[in-house]
């Protein structure tokens, strides 16, 4: 299908000039000589891109852009600004322009900007469509991820969830260790019992001991009532011991004893109490190193790491950033902050950041941006400066002030490919390889489904229901 471009300028000559450059490139080009006509044309016909002048007598290009975005017309917009007016260019980007061009338009630059904008729009639209189709495909309990490393962890949780082995989850802060622990609880029959968590790093030994094991009335000054500890509260369920690498040697001994015997004594108590608790331990420190440095007991370490899960940091699974960012937009958007999209420049800043605070840092950044946003789009300058350093207009000068990361289209293309492959795999298996039913389900023609299966090397035969005589 030919890509259709609408040029908007009160100067007929300028529209003709754009047409002369763009038509030989294979685009279908139409012109409107004022904003109101442009809006009418956009209502009546599908356009993929609008290239509008900024200065026009009745409705300015700026107003046209804002109306297009307010009405959520799914079209790319490139604004043509006066030469050298940097602040104007920045303003238009803030208002949701995909890109801008300076007058007089250089043919080569125009071709490049148009091609790039159309490509990005196309990928973004595809991504948005897939997101709707696939809500669910990349979720696992309260987590979302499409990175192969995380998908393996999800499989593992499903697998070890059925047994009661102790699990050690290691990984940097904010990588989702607690969510993994909750998922381990949720897939186990113990989900009928409680999931109890305790951060061991914030308490001194005596407080930690009474928090874990409870205490009897009068066990120490201030112990006015009997207290039930976390172990007892988690009886029949799961106990997450977070930041286990930070507990003292003395506490390690006490904990080991409870793990070995399955019984504990409350502080100040004499009666052994039997508990049936599945232990999940988490640590941002690598316990193996702590053992080598003789700060952590090897016997406790081996007892904890019957199953070991290593959480990859976010910088090693950048393909998850668009998915997670959109997940957090959806999670935190509200009637007062009705964000539905993340613009290109903001997404690029998210992809370029190194995320020392991992997913928690990403969630906080998106949450704050959603709360501050006024329109439906999360723009780059809503993100913290540490993630999206401000571009000073004075420092500009090149054709584009915002440096577009050229890897991004590939990254998104890969993502779309992966998402799509998994989608078709799932639908094929649901309909046992029946292409007609897959086509009906996905709203595509049989031919398109067959092409997709070929593209992703999916053999419909292998999804057929086995026949038994
Ligand atoms: N895969 C994921 N999908 C959605 N949200 C996630 C995912 N992973 C983590 N989060 C969110 O990121 C935040 C941090 O996750 P979590 O508390 O589980 O990390 P953690 O590794 O236990 O952190 P810490 O080491 O600081 O205790 C939470 O708000 C959580 O909801």
From TrEMBL:
Q: Does the keyword Transmembrane apply?
A: no
Q: Which residues are in the Response regulatory domain?
A: 4-118
Kindly state which keywords UniProt assigns to this record, in alphabetical order.
Answer: ATP-binding, DNA-binding, Nucleotide-binding, Phosphoprotein, Transcription, Transcription regulation
Q: Where is the Sigma-54 factor interaction domain?
A: 143-371
**SUPFAM superfamilies assigned to the protein according to its UniProt record, in alphabetical order:** CheY-like, Homeodomain-like, P-loop containing nucleoside triphosphate hydrolases
> Origin organism of this chain?
Paludisphaera mucosa
Query: PANTHER family attached here?
Result: TRANSCRIPTIONAL REGULATORY PROTEIN
Q: What is the lineage of its organism?
A: Bacteria, Pseudomonadati, Planctomycetota, Planctomycetia, Isosphaerales
Q: Which Gene3D superfamilies match?
A: 1.10.8.60, 3.40.50.2300, Homeodomain-like, P-loop containing nucleotide triphosphate hydrolases
Q: What is this protein called?
A: Sigma-54 dependent transcriptional regulator
Among its keywords, does the record have Amino-acid biosynthesis? Answer: no
Q: Which InterPro entries does the record match to this protein?
A: AAA+_ATPase, AAA_lid_NorR, CheY-like_superfamily, Homeodomain-like_sf, HTH_Fis, P-loop_NTPase, Sig_transdc_resp-reg_receiver, Sigma_54_int
Instruction: According to the UniProt record, list the residues that bear 4-aspartylphosphate.
Output: 53
